[in-house]
Amino acid sequence: MHRPLFIPIGVSLLFFTLTLQATTIYSWVDKNGVVHFTDQPNAAHTKVYELNTPPSAPLSTTVDEIEVTKEKSSTPEALPPATIRFITPSHEQTLRSNAGHIDITANSNREITKDYKVQVVLDGNSHLALQNSLTFSLFDIDRGSHQLQLQLLKDGKVIALSNSITVYLHRASTTRIRPPAASPKL
Q: DUF4124 domain: from which residue to which, for each copy (predicted)?
């Protein structure tokens, strides 16, 4: 239920003007020279101070403010656009692995739960199954230059793409021609 804002403000002003009151404070000095303040008169040498104090806010106004705050907080705030990026490897990094192994670590501004999946794209093709993780391991990748990209998906739709990076994988060749063993000349 929405109430106009001027009603609680009007009620508050009404209570404020009706309950504005004066408070009397008394002070006196004892035989040791200590000044005491009280709301009760004590002796003939008591000084009197009149203070105007504003009333405390009525409870109903506080409740109305809390209700307005709850209504504002219940509306969902717009999330920033989803992002995903590589942490490792970096762009144009040279990787050395004779097994053709590439480890990937990513970061996203969305918590990767069952609603979000991540896909690794290697040289333009999806390489691994969709995962609920930001760490990946690629195995038996051929040596050479490779393009990597990450896709963040929600309900099967791509909602964010990482920058495409190039990595250079170095691995020993299995078809390497070995020179003949040197034989001693006699």
A: 13-62
